[in-house]
Amino acid sequence: MSKNLIKHGNSLALVIDKPILELLQITADTPLELTTNGDVLLVTPVRDKRRQRKLEASLEKINQKFSDDLQRLAE
């Protein structure tokens, strides 16, 4: 997808389409982190660290319990 920046006062703005916002569960109140390597701009929603740790722990349990089955499904 290609986007153009729009003028917003003395700044430029990037408009993110609604389907992308819904997919990433981003609202107007979601804080966003901007990072760059000097060539690429990455916009990442800031998530609750506790929530992220719970998700990672759950994924680890699933992988431990079902890794063989998941591997077979991936083939």
TrEMBL record:
Transmembrane segments: none annotated. GO terms for molecular function: DNA binding. Coiled coil: none annotated. It comes from the Bacteria. InterPro entries: SpoVT-AbrB_dom, SpoVT-AbrB_sf. Residues 6-51 form the SpoVT-AbrB domain. This is SpoVT-AbrB domain-containing protein.
